[in-house]
Design a protein that fits this description.
Elements: H1 3-14, H2 24-40, H3 45-59, H4 62-65, H5 70-85, E1 101-106, H6 113-126, E2 131-136, H7 143-154, E3 157-159, H8 170-183, E4 188-193, H9 201-214, E5 218-224, H10 229-241, E6 246-250, H11 259-268, E7 272-276, E8 284-286, H12 289-296, H13 302-312, H14 315-327, H15 333-345, H16 349-354, H17 363-367, H18 372-382, H19 386-390, H20 397-407, H21 411-432, H22 479-489, H23 492-503, H24 510-516
């Protein structure tokens, strides 16, 4: 959603880099570009004026003029002011001292209230609560049935005594839900109310009646982030007519400009509680202003990425995998499959990559990523026997043809997967042992020492291989074993071969030999 704003800001800050000192004209030019970028992103004009004024005061102070890197200081100021207009600190839900806690959802029809009710219930369930969904939207056709389906997917209870579709009293349903929650020991009640195609007095009165009947601890206004400036007018009308404690943003994964998300806090003065960024029930989380500002400035959202990883990777399992990677050959396709399935549980690979810093330059490549490719890889591995997954060396031509037939792929796909796995395992094993990346001089061999294992790296030139020298007896093709054999033989001429073997000259894997042009 913020890709256009992200690109404009990246270009603006790129022009500042390399300047040891910023003049007033540099600051004015930067602020002008920031203003245009925010207005193009459909941010409300009052919010833009307030933001630019705050940045201008700080940018022309000693905070920037005395900094070693003024450009970085400007970026830091913009980041902090973005965090401020997004809400400052993360706002948490306020729970009742005596259960149940009541959360009332309000908003226009089509904003995604019903789906969001299920997402919120699933999120609260993951936090250890026992929520119940209340079907108080009795106006929209099949709204009750939709909430029941969403509740079934989230595996939470749904209180729906009325069929809806224009029949029933939503105020009585909301009041009866309190008794139901106490009897069934639900500690959170989420009330899904009716929306309209526009703000009208009838809608406001019904929302006020439900509010008075259940006395909610939190009233959340569900805002469609794709609507634009009109959403802010709606939010302001709801604040005047019903009143609410915070905002929930939906459809943040859309391709709209996203100005409503940046403006809603400044216009309404209410914090943003949650953000929904996908169609799945799992695509929902608490809204963190500092993380959103970091994403807009293309600095990534590593904390959210870590939190997602902690949910699917157990600490002991991660330590076992790290130990297997350190040894190299113990890491099997079975382990790789387990890691692949865990990553897929974290969500779309494109979204995960988007959380890394500096990925805006590769957004086109990320957008073209196909998660089905991982399904094909999984099908290939699951078409192997346990013995084949443990030792890929047993995969001869007939086995590979059988695996291709079982997974619905080509033999070339199987060959490509196996070859990539072997190369990756070899590379990860060497990096874990401190040997650096094979064939990449200067990236390993310990701190400060360079690679030292290949010609042209480290402290000097490697010795040329001597021709005509043959070790006595059979010499191993493994560089380490060959070095030990030559060392045991101990002849003066063979001492040079020991140095050569220890350096690993001439023993690069074929794929890296091709890469280096040898």
């Amino acid at each position: 959603m913020f890709s256009t704003l992200q690109d404009r800001l990246s270009t603006t800050f790129r022009n500042l880099r390399g300047k040891g000192k910023l003049s007033d004209s540099d600051i004015d030019s930067t602020l002008r570009e920031l203003r245009v970028a925010l207005l193009e992103a459909d941010v409300a004009l009052p919010v833009v004026k307030e933001f630019i004024a705050a940045v201008r005061v700080r940018a022309k102070s000693a905070e920037v003029s005395g900094a070693l890197n003024p450009a970085q200081q400007i970026i830091k100021i913009v980041n902090e002011e973005l965090v401020e207009i997004l809400g400052g600190q993360t706002r948490r839900l306020r729970f009742a001292k005596t259960p149940p806690t009541v959360i009332l959802l309000a908003g226009l029809q089509g904003a995604g209230k019903t789906t969001l009710a299920g997402k919120l219930a699933l999120w609260l369930k993951s936090q250890g609560h026992q929520p119940v969904l209340v079907a108080a939207d009795l106006q929209r056709p099949n709204a009750v049935q939709q909430l029941q389906v969403v509740g079934e997917r989230a595996e939470v209870a749904v209180f729906a005594p009325e069929a809806g579709s224009g029949t029933g009293d939503p105020v009585r349903v909301s009041r009866d839900s309190m008794t139901y929650a106490r009897e069934k020991l639900h500690d959170i009640v989420i009330v899904d109310t009716a929306g309209r195609l526009g703000v009208d007095e009838e809608m406001m009165q019904q929302a006020r009646d439900i509010r008075d009947a259940v006395q909610p601890d939190e009233v959340l206004f569900v805002l469609d982030a794709m609507v634009g400036q009109d959403a802010l007018a709606t939010a302001h009308a709801f604040e005047q007519g019903v009143g609410f404690d915070g905002v929930v943003l939906t459809k943040l994964d859309g391709d709209a400009r996203g100005g409503a998300a940046l403006s809603v806090r400044g216009v309404t003065g209410k914090p943003i509680f949650f953000a929904s960024n996908g169609e799945k029930l799992e695509d929902f989380d608490a809204f963190h202003p500092e993380r959103m500002a970091s994403r807009i400035l293309d600095m990534g959202d590593v904390l959210t990425l870590i939190e997602k990883a902690e949910k699917v990777f157990e600490k002991e399992q991660a330590e076992q995998m790290a130990a297997k990677l350190a040894t190299g050959n113990e890491f099997t396709l079975e382990d790789f499959l387990a890691q692949l399935q865990a990553v897929q549980k974290m969500g779309s690979v494109g979204k995960l990559l988007g959380m890394l810093p500096g990925m805006s330059e590769h957004k086109d490549a990320i957008a073209n990523l196909d998660d089905k490719e991982f399904d094909r890889v999984r099908a290939i591995i699951q078409s192997m026997t346990p013995g084949e997954r443990t030792d890929v060396k047993v995969l001869n031509a007939s086995r590979r043809q059988r695996i291709a037939g079982g997974s619905g792929t080509q033999v070339s796909d199987v060959n490509q997967l196996v070859n990539r796995f072997i190369e990756a395992r070899k590379m990860m094993g060497q990096m874990a042992r401190g040997g650096g990346i094979p064939g990449m001089p200067g990236l390993g061999g310990g701190l400060g020492g360079g690679l030292g294992g290949f010609a042209g790296s480290g402290g000097g030139r490697g010795k040329k291989a001597k021709k005509g020298k043959k070790a006595k007896g059979r010499v191993s093709g493994n560089p380490a074993k060959r070095a030990e054999q030559l060392a045991r033989q101990g002849t003066p001429d063979e001492a040079e071969d020991v140095e050569e073997a220890a350096a690993g000259l001439g023993e690069l894997p074929p794929e890296f030999t091709d890469l280096l042009g040898r």
